[in-house]
């Protein structure tokens, strides 16, 4: 068997925000294909935005999700990055904290839907790449398709309320802009 080193990946708030993507990414991380990283600022950002857009959800429920994520991945939360923020120059200054987290934990990549806000020419100096979730899924599938398929199966098995069929979950992932879902899981 070929050994692939475990990647260190910062998850931006916008990929944690949609539950189906968050669940798939965390199922992948649970199978040790990558080590997820985030900060309290990232967690606050996605929960704040979700509460603003989904008033039917409670802050307590989202904090429970954050606590479960931190418990499942005790090494995921990054500290000591704050002093780097002001030194960084990105098109959207509100994303500097995400790059600072990546630098502090020596991340291999940042996963975000806002790739334009993390220019490769700037991130190259930190040896950090940027991918959207669909590109990450395709990359991980090219490295280890059995783990990617197992993560999908684990996600599917965990959906109890309401349960979903394989086709329904693929459709949900497609609606979340994971265009390779049909090719990989169909």
User: Treating each run of at least 4 consecutive H or I residues as one helix, how many helices?
Assistant: 11
Q: How many domains in all?
A: 1
- Topology order in helix (H) and strand (E) letters: EHHEHHHHEHEHHHH
Provide the CATH topology.
Answer: Rossmann fold
Q: How large, in whole angstroms, is the Cα Rg?
A: 16 Å
How many extended strands? 4
Overall body shape = globular
Mind describing the biggest β-sheet? 4 strands, parallel
CATH architecture descriptor text:
3-Layer(aba) Sandwich
Give the mean pLDDT. Answer: 95
Query: Which ranges are low-confidence, i.e. pLDDT below 50, for 5 or more consecutive residues?
Result: none
What share of residues are in beta strands? 5-15%
Main-sheet strand order equals 2-1-3-4
Q: What is the C-level CATH assignment?
A: Alpha Beta
Indicate the percent of residues in helices.
Answer: 40-55%
- End-to-end span in angstroms? 26 Å
Structural class: alpha/beta
């Amino acid at each position: 068997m070929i050994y692939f080193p475990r990647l260190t990946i910062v998850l931006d708030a916008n990929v944690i925000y949609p539950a189906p993507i968050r669940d798939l990414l965390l199922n992948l991380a649970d199978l040790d294909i990558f080590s997820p990283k985030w900060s309290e600022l990232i967690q606050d950002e996605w929960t704040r935005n979700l509460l603003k857009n989904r008033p039917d959800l409670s802050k307590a429920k989202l904090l429970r999700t954050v606590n479960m994520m931190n418990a499942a991945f005790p090494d995921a939360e990054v500290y000591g990055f704050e002093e780097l923020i002001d030194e960084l120059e990105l098109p959207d200054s509100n994303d500097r904290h995400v790059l600072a987290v990546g630098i502090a934990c020596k991340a291999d990549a940042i996963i975000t839907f806002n790739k334009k806000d993390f220019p490769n020419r700037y991130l190259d100096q930190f040896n950090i790449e940027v991918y959207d979730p669909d590109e990450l899924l395709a990359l991980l599938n090219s490295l280890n398709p059995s783990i990617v398929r197992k993560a999908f199966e684990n996600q599917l098995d965990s959906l109890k309320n309401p349960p979903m069929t394989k086709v329904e979950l693929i459709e949900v992932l497609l609606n979340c802009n994971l265009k390779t879902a049909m090719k990989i899981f169909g």
